[in-house]
């Protein structure tokens, strides 16, 4: 039924990540971990998928000798999110007509 | 690996949750607004007390002491904040208030140089910041409070200096401290 929706975004954790990244200049891994309430391993896995699709940019650096991962949404990611939201709107509009 | 497939309603719910979380960024800043509002009000009332011989210390002491406390606490809170990601909302608000603080600083300098009261300019700057914050949060209370500061700034022009101090303190409490204390949910 929801085949038109981008499968990469149509998953709870990845959608949450992308929604968060749209509202921030950049996000740190630990903040994403807290906001998405998922496990470290799952978050890494989902970020890897988004990175492979070039939806996000990941920068690994150090702060006070601790590793710091900074994630930023890419232009491709922004466009994909816009299309995804437009498609959701279309589906909801159909639902409204049906009710 | 099986993944949960979202329906549009669930997707919207997730996006909505994140938007609400961004709005909660405001709550982090609320304590800064309350702190600075109270400190500027305290400095104004203290100077009024000094000018009326209730307190016997140099008139400028409150304007060093209270902002000094504010600066130390702001730096401490800023450094101890666990949230490190910077939202666009916070980025804009921080930049706006930073610019307004420069404007306030310049206004104070110009006012002292020309030996005129700085409070109308101070109230205008704080009013602009409060109103813009209100528009961003879509919160009518803060937009209204910004207008209160504007009216206060104009009313200041018709008052003697000592009463301007009281008006400035009152505006800070009514237009800054109180709305931030009562706005638990925006």
From TrEMBL, chain A:
Gene3D superfamilies: Winged helix-like DNA-binding domain superfamily/Winged helix DNA-binding domain (1.10.10.10). Coiled coil: none annotated. It comes from the Bacteria. It holds the Pfam family HTH_34. Residues 13-92 form the Winged helix DNA-binding domain. This is ArsR family transcriptional regulator. It comes from Aquirufa beregesia. The lineage of its organism: Bacteria, Pseudomonadati, Bacteroidota, Cytophagia, Cytophagales.
TrEMBL record, chain B:
Keywords: Membrane, Transmembrane, Transmembrane helix. The chain crosses the membrane at residues 33-54, 60-80, 92-113, 119-136, 141-161. It comes from the Bacteria. This is Uncharacterized protein.
């Amino acid at each position: 039924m929801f085949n038109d929706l981008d499968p990469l975004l149509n998953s709870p954790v990845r959608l949450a990540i992308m929604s968060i990244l749209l509202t921030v200049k950049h996000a740190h891994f630990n903040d994403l971990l807290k906001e998405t309430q998922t496990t470290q391993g799952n978050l890494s896995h989902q970020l890897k998928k988004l990175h492979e699709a070039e939806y996000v940019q990941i920068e690994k650096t150090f702060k006070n000798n601790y590793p710091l991962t900074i994630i930023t949404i890419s232009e491709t990611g922004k466009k994909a999110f816009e299309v995804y939201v437009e498609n959701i709107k279309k589906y909801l509009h159909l639902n409204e007509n049906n009710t | 690996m099986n993944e949960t497939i979202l329906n549009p309603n669930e997707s919207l719910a997730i996006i909505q949750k994140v938007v609400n979380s961004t709005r909660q960024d405001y709550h982090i800043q609320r304590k800064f607004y309350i702190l600075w509002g109270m400190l500027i009000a305290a400095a104004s009332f203290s100077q009024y007390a000094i000018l009326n011989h209730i307190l016997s210390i140099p008139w400028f002491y409150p304007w060093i002491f209270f902002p000094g406390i504010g600066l130390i606490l702001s730096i401490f809170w800023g450094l101890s904040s666990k949230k490190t990601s910077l939202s666009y909302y916070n980025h804009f608000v921080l930049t706006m208030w930073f610019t307004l603080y420069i404007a306030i600083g310049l206004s104070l300098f110009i006012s002292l140089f020309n030996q005129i009261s700085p409070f109308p300019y101070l109230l205008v700057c704080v009013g602009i910041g409060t109103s813009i914050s209100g528009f961003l949060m879509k919160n009518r209370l803060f937009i209204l409070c910004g207008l209160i500061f504007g009216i206060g700034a104009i009313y200041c022009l018709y008052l003697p200096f000592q009463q301007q101090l009281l008006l400035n303190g009152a505006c800070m409490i009514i237009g800054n401290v109180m709305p931030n204390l009562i706005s638990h949910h925006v």
